[in-house]
Amino acid sequence: MALTNRIRPGSTDMTTGNPYKLIILFSIPLLIGNVFQQLYNMLDSIVVGNFIGEKALAAVGTGFPIIFMLSSLFTVIGSGATVMIAQFYGARDIEKVNQTVGTIYSAMLVGIVPLSLLGIVTTRPLLKLIQVPDDGTLDMAVLYMIVIYVGLIGSIGFNINYGILQGLGDSRSSLIFLLIATIVNIVLDLLFTLAFRWGVFGVALATIIAQLCSWLFGVWYINKHYDFVHISLRRFFFDKKLFREAMRLGIPAGIQQALFSVGMMLMQSLVNGYGSAFMAGFNGANKLDTFAFMPIQSFTTAMTTYTGQNIGACDLKRVKDGTRSGLVICVGFAVVISIILFPLSPVMMRLFSSSQEVIDAGVAYLHTVLPFYFLLAIVFMYNSILRGTGEMMVPMISSFLALWLARLPAAYLLAYFFGKEAIFYSYGIGWLIGGIISACYYYSGRWKGKSVVRHTEKT
Predict the structure, then answer these.
(1) What's the rounded mean pLDDT across residues 106-129?
(2) Contact 232, 99 (CB under 8 A)
(3) pLDDT single digits (tens) 380-435
(4) Cα maximum dimension of the chain
(5) 299 near 326, Cβ under 8 Å?
(6) Are residues 80 and 248 in contact, defined by beta-carbon separation less than 8 angstroms?
(7) For the CA atoms of 228, 231, 232, 236, what is the dihedral angle to 10 degrees?
(8) Rounded distance, CA 79 to CA 255, Å?
(9) Cα–Cα distance between 36 and 351 in angstroms, integer?
(10) Could you say which of 57, 129, 302, 322 would form a disulfide bridge with 26 (CB–CB 3.0 to 4.6 Å)?
(11) How far apart are CA 246 and CA 87, in angstroms?
(12) How far does the chain reach from its first CA to its final CA, in angstroms?
């Protein structure tokens, strides 16, 4: 069935128009949304670091790679579905768009309980595996993560809604969901932590309540504003062919995320070996790093949608034009961000802690990685373009080699020979390797003909 006049005005048709303009305009709401999302993530760290303590800050930050790893076991399907929705949208196939949405939601509702239970059971063993200090930090990290796993459906559901809208070319509506999450989280963070004195339990509880509110509002919003998409939390629709295609596309991305998470656990383990102060500085700087990376992340996310829609429309020339535009925008922003943040690093680190040891560790991280930010922009841009085409294996291989054969070995070697602060040079080494692999594959042209639309027609 063709998708004609039923496209909502908030959606963006990226198969026509100037690529620079489309990418930037699509990215602006994404960037604002990412600011909201990171705002409440940073608020958690600021509140914890200043009002609960250094060990609590280390506890909240150290569990992220583990949560990310287990979540990636499910989000493989969601990442594949986002590409499928973008390509079906570009091909104007309304029936396949709606069926893909129904299939991904059914899979989530069935799989969320065992995934949450798996997370709860493995929390303490995994934290011990990465050498979280048993000085109070371990117990706080366990408590924080268990609460997060109990409410995991809110986080995954929110990200599925976000992916659906992204595939449809709507980067504006997600702002509403993120605004709700941010406001709820800020209010509850302050209430639970400062008024009720619930510590890291209060921080975690505020996070999952905020995510649940945002997810459920998103379900209502999509059903109300998109008459060709229907999300049901009671009646399941499941298409085996579409699910297999989502898995085909998503499994490489999921493996990539899982391997990345395990790699980050090993990196965290290395950092943890230098004590809670170094851990806290590393985790605080990671928050700033994530915040600084948001413009680039927004542009690369836009490129996945742009590429997917144009692949669906069988317009390879526009894909190549968009690639050139995206690289200019991304690398330019990476350079500007690095120049601005480098001298402000000590001031920004004081948001998280007044301890000079914590501040010094965070500044060492930022001053080492920021000069190589342009390499990170290049890696993300090429991998996002390849995912939009339906090519998922190469980004996985690129990320695997960059992390496991470059960054991690370099981190341990640098720490051994030059000391703990030299660890952070491993980031630039990994980004260089990943960028070379992804760029070489893109210019080989082997990604052509990866259209999901054609693949589902053949199977």
Answers:
(1) 91
(2) no
(3) 999 999 999 988 889 989 999 999 999 999 999 999 999 888 999 999 999 999 99
(4) 64
(5) yes
(6) yes
(7) 90
(8) 12
(9) 17
(10) 302
(11) 12
(12) 19
**247 within 8 A of 76, measured Cβ to Cβ:** yes
What distance in Å separates the CA atoms of residue 345 and residue 14, rounded to the nearest whole number? 37
> Which structure tokens are listed for 335?
């350079």
Query: For residue 196, what is the DSSP state?
Result: S
- Helices marked H in 130-197 — which ranges? 137-150, 152-167, 173-190
The Cα 445–Cα 21 span in angstroms is 25
User: Per the structure block, which two tokens stand in for 11?
Assistant: 């959606």
pLDDT at 1: 42
424 and 270 Cβ atoms separated by less than 8 Å: no
Cα–Cα distances (Å) from 53 to 200, 259, 272, in that order, read 10, 31, 17
- CB 33, CB 165: distance < 8 Å: no
Q: Under the phi-then-psi rule, with left for phi > 0, alpha for psi from -120 to 50, and beta for the rest, what region is 223?
A: alpha
The residue type of 371 is: P
Q: How high is the pLDDT of residue 6?
A: 47
Q: Among residues 172, 168, 254, 185, which one has the least CA distance to residue 44?
A: 185
Token pair of 135 as six digits? 């000085």
